[in-house]
Structure to design on (68 residues):
């Protein structure tokens, strides 16, 4: 992006418009996917603990801590 003093007002508004057009959907998608993934992960970890067949608990635990 060019320095502020070069950009005139209409360009500025155009950039803001472009950003607001694309960013919110991406952000909401990321939030939705992230919460969904962490929920799946907790479900999977609970299931694995119940069935007692975790291959490497430290790895899944660190993943779980990272997602929350």
């Amino acid at each position: 992006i060019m320095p502020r003093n070069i950009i005139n007002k209409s360009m500025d508004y155009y950039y803001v418009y472009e950003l607001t057009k694309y960013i919110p959907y991406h952000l909401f998608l990321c939030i939705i996917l992230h919460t969904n993934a962490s929920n799946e992960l907790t479900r999977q970890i609970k299931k694995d603990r119940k069935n007692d067949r975790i291959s490497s608990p430290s790895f899944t635990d660190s993943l779980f801590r990272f997602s929350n």
Q: What stands out?
A: The CA atoms of residues 36 and 62 lie 18 Å apart. Helices lie at 9-51, 57-67. The mean pLDDT is 66.
